[in-house]
Amino acid sequence: MLRRITTLVALTMLSAGAVAVAGTGPAQASRPLPESIALPNGFQPEGFTIGRGTSFYVGSLADGAVFRGDLVTGRGRILVPGTAGTMKTGLKVDGRNRLWAAGASGGDADVYDAASGRHLAHYAFTDDPNTFVNDLVVTPSAVYFTDSARPFLYVVPLGHDGRLPGQAAVRSLALRGPAADDGAFNNGIVAAPGGRLIVVQMLAGRLVTVNPHDGGSQVVDLHGYSVVNGDGLVLRGHQLYVIRNQDNLVAVIRLGDRFATGRLVREITSPLLRVPATGDLFGPFLYVVNARFDVTPTPDTDYNVVRLLA
Q1: Which CATH number is associated with domain 32-309?
Q2: Which residues pair with 249 in a beta bridge?
Q3: Distance CA 68, CA 49 (A)
Q4: What is the Cα–Cα distance from 298 to 288, expressed in whole angstroms?
Q5: Lowest mean pLDDT among 11-20, 272-281, 282-291
Q6: Which end of the chain is more exposed for a tag (fewer CB within 10 A), N or C?
Q7: How far apart are CA 90 and CA 266, in angstroms?
Q8: Which positions ≥6 away from 229 have C-beta within 8 Å?
Q9: What pairs with residue 122 in β-bridges?
Q10: Each residue of 68-89: pLDDT tens digit?
Q11: Cα angle, residue 90 at apex, residues 103 and 52 outer, rounded to 5°
Q12: Domain limits, the chain
């Protein structure tokens, strides 16, 4: 009973935007979760994910650096130093606390220890200069990457023990159907229960489901709603959050039982949004990173992560 009461109290505090923090006094104090967390100036963020505990990670388009921060304290540091000529787009932390990072125009991906930043693996997907490895999703059997410029998903299979494979195991899955449409710009990706993948096509303004075995795809019927400018995706159960960057909003879509249809529930808007790119859920909150694609980046351009009520 005590454990249940403690859980209910914690959930109540989260819903109020606060977490319990240990203090030196006779009782615990509560610390409000920051509504905005500053990133280094000039960082040019794109990918964002939440890892273990209250840690979060942001990747840089400027030089491929990875910033690790804390949702409670708002503090952070560079976990993976940048390298000139590289970029990081989509990020995800898997169940073994490994950070996966898409390599954008490099046509590749890297894996790091999410605690130490130690480099664990590098995977090359294509040497085609017309590539943009954009986002990824981790499933129990494989990690899937989208390419916004080529009609493929890149697949890194995982063993039963989760061991990282060698380069030879990596394969390219040719897409068929609407997922392969030229110029659609496949972007964010999530995995639905049952195995199918859901991809947002940023320029086509639609969602497609993809069979991870043969690459076949179908358009999700959104009953006339467009997800144009759809960037990152976040899925919780049948509720899909589509982060529409240039529109400064997050579309909340309720997907049907078979994930073949969906209806708009609401659009989340906020003055805190400054062209958000990607996000992740933490309790009742959706955190998004403001990429600010609408401004010319300079070394002094400010960026941040913001908290929204999901």
Answers
A1: 2.130.10.10
A2: 244
A3: 10
A4: 21
A5: 11-20
A6: N
A7: 25
A8: 202, 205, 244, 245, 246, 247
A9: 110
A10: 999 999 999 999 999 999 999 9
A11: 120
A12: 32-309
**CA atoms of 98 and 91, how far apart (whole Å):** 10
Token pair belonging to 28:
């615990």
The neighbouring-strand residues paired with 244 are 230, 249
Question: Would you list the DSSP string of 165-216?
Answer: PPGGG-EEEE--GGGG-TT--EEEEEE-TTS-EEEEETTTTEEEEE-TTT--
Residue at token pair 């030879």: 168
Segment 126-172, tens digit of pLDDT: 999 999 999 999 999 999 999 999 999 999 999 888 899 999 999 99
Question: How many angstroms separate the CA atoms of 177 and 198, rounded?
Answer: 14
- What secondary structure does DSSP assign to 76-127, as a single string? EEEEE---TT-----EEE-TTSEEEEE-BTTSEEEEEETTT--EEEEEE---
Rg (CA), the chain: 19
Among 305, 236, 231, 309, CA closest to 266? 309
For residue 119, give both structure tokens.
Answer: 């480099």
Give residue 8's identity as a one-letter amino acid code.
L
